[in-house]
Design goal:
heterodimer; A: alpha+beta; seven-stranded antiparallel beta sheet; 8 strands; B: alpha+beta; eight-stranded antiparallel beta sheet; 18 helices; about 25% strand; disordered N terminus
Chain lengths: ~200, ~400
């Protein structure tokens, strides 16, 4: 008896219905990509635990903080087969980046996002936890070195542990920025000239 | 219903019924397999699976440990909420296939929304999985029309709620018509009409998405920038939290520790802005340099600097500039964490204020060590120091310029 019910209960995909919803959905997806590439839409990034590289030819920021953090990963796949890693958390309240490139390894492929070739990428409340950060030159104004990480105020809501060593400055300008990071949080970006593809790392 | 006969002739699953005729003679593995197949085919399995995979891919692309999510706050939470609800949609499509229309449309909308909230929809991969899965689940047609061939199926008690729901969703009716349309030409019209009618609503619903999203992003993007802007203006000078700490700090310093050495100019620090004295208590932080050129240098006494470990006696220097060649900043913590910045040239200029617990170096061939217990007696205003080590520094300046710098982290 159940057998018969089972047979009658079998369903299948109606491809016309599929087309009816997939077409507008794809159209919307394209619109989203275009709007993002025209920096009408701001998008958010949150990455953690996966190493990724960010480069930019020029970074100008207002409100900068940096302090060391101990990040944890769910898996023990961080360098040294541990689930803990020391990272430098850099936070910028508002940033303009030119020639931004972000690459992240997904499985065997490397996904690469580039933007800001013609006009600057803007980001707000960026926090990036990096193990390597380098640049051609950097200029900080109203700089404090050795500020207690729990008393920094340049980026609202972002503070380090009490007693920790922190850098803090009102503005930051870095050329040829290159950073290898494990986490970024709460970053809101506009990505003019967005280009998303598989390719070689930045 | 007339579609009854259409159903009978439909070559939908003839093989399946054959299999079930012989089910009793099959082994347990085969039976389990058939049961699984039955489960799979009575719900939008592939659609749900793709939706779950899409949501999971987004979460993997974010892969956040809990402390970070909490640290992010509500804005970042959306980045995790969207894929989580997406996964939930996929699971619910499996568990309650009757609600397929709602969950599948919701899944498509969430997948599209993830572009903004969740790493460009898990770098587009999760977004596509979610959209295709949602569309598949939406397009999936339940086969349990009220006209199945076996007579007892007509009396199935479980039938009632589904029909009631179908009335609301207007789903099965059109589906049945469409199905019939495959065989009977006259029915094609109604099937077509039903389909296009739904297409219209779907298109409306879906095209509303960018508008919604635009509104969302408009609402979302100013919110972070709104909060910073008021604090942006004053934050340059003092930080409200740091300000009160200043007053007790330097004032106490000159009197009690009041340097026996005459050359010390006590008095409070210059009008440098009510900056510091919330220095880091980290025991191993330092500024080092192969050589350093200090200009306009003066030693301003020993100050009690506030740290989280209480007040610490520190030497206080002011200068107009400090240029370090092959310099390094080391911010170390007692637990072994450290963040180091190395640079070929590191220059602090303009109102440079330096607090330190210990300064060692070589001045004109003479090794010197200054501590609050043995502060500098005489110090020339322009000094070149080699092998400079400044322990537990707190330094502030109008400008810090760093060239060819490299930051690394370490754990000892």
């Amino acid at each position: 008896m159940t057998q018969n019910a089972a047979v009658s209960g079998y369903g299948r995909v109606r491809w016309r219905r599929f087309a009816v919803i997939i077409m507008p959905a794809l159209a919307v997806a394209i619109v989203l990509v275009v709007l993002t590439a025209q920096s009408v839409l701001a998008v958010s990034f949150a990455i953690s635990g996966i190493p990724f590289t960010v480069t930019a030819s020029q970074l100008n920021g207002q409100g900068f903080e940096q302090f060391g953090v101990l990040d944890h990963s769910i898996t023990k796949d961080l360098p040294g087969n541990t689930n803990q890693i020391v990272l430098a958390a850099s936070a910028i309240r508002s940033a303009q980046l030119s020639h931004l490139c972000l690459s992240v390894a997904i499985g065997f492929a490397t996904l690469k996002i580039t933007a800001g070739d013609s006009s600057d990428v803007t980001g707000s409340d960026l926090v990036i936890d990096a193990d390597r950060l380098s640049g051609g030159s950097a200029t900080f104004t109203k700089m404090a070195i050795g500020q207690d990480a729990s008393t920094v105020t340049q980026v609202p809501g972002v503070r380090g542990p009490a007693g920790d060593f922190a850098l803090d400055s009102q503005t930051v300008a870095i050329t040829d920025l290159r950073t290898h990071a494990y986490a970024t949080t709460a970053g809101t970006f506009t990505l003019p000239g967005l280009n998303l593809r598989f390719g070689s790392p930045c | 219903m007339t579609s009854h006969d259409a159903r009978d002739t439909e070559p939908g699953n003839p093989d399946a019924s054959d299999e079930y005729d012989t089910i009793e003679e099959l082994g347990p593995i085969r039976q389990a397999l058939l049961a699984w197949q039955r489960w799979r085919r009575t719900r939008p399995f592939w659609g749900g699976l793709l939706i779950i995979l899409g949501g999971a891919e987004m979460l993997i692309s974010e892969q956040a440990p809990l402390p970070i999510i909490i640290h992010v706050g509500i804005q970042g939470l959306a980045g995790y909420l969207v894929p989580i609800v997406l996964v939930l949609c996929g699971v619910l499509l499996w568990l309650t296939p009757l609600q397929q229309t709602f969950y599948s449309v919701l899944a498509v909308l969430l997948a599209l929304g993830s572009w903004i909230t969740s790493n460009l929809g898990g770098f587009f991969i999760g977004l596509m999985l979610g959209v295709v899965g949602g569309a598949l689940a939406f397009a999936w047609q339940r086969g349990d029309d009220p006209e199945p061939s076996p007579p007892d199926a007509l009396m199935r008690p479980g039938k009632a709620p589904s029909e009631g729901l179908n009335l609301i969703l207007g789903d099965d009716a059109t589906g049945g018509d469409e199905r019939a349309a495959d065989d009977t030409p006259p029915r094609a019209d109604s099937g077509e009409a039903g389909g296009s009618g739904r297409a219209g609503t779907v298109i409306m619903a879906v095209s509303a998405v960018p508008v919604m999203l635009a509104v969302l992003s408009q609402g979302a993007s100013p919110s972070p920038s709104l909060t910073p802007s008021p604090s942006a203006l004053p934050s340059g000078t003092p930080s409200p939290s740091a300000a009160p700490s200043l007053s007790p700090t330097p004032s106490t310093s000159p009197s009690p520790t009041g340097m026996p050495t005459g050359s010390v100019s006590p008095g409070p620090p210059r009008q440098h802005g009510p900056r510091p004295p919330a220095a880091a208590a980290g025991a191993v932080s330092s500024i080092t340099a192969m050589s350093a050129v200090l200009t306009g240098l003066s030693f301003d006494g020993v100050a009690q600097v506030r740290t989280t470990d209480g007040f610490v006696s520190m030497l206080m220097f002011t200068m107009s500039s400090m240029t370090l060649t092959d310099g390094a900043l080391q911010g170390g913590e007692p637990d072994g964490r450290s963040v180091g910045t190395a640079s070929s040239l590191l220059g602090l200029t303009g109102n440079v204020l330096l607090y330190t617990t210990k300064l060692t170096g070589v001045v004109q061939g003479v090794a010197v060590t200054y501590t609050p217990e043995s502060p500098p007696v005489k110090i020339s205003s322009d000094t070149t120091v080699t092998d400079l080590v400044i322990d537990q520094p707190y330094a502030s300046a109008d400008t810090l310029q760093v060239s060819a710098f490299q930051q690394t982290v370490a754990r000892t």
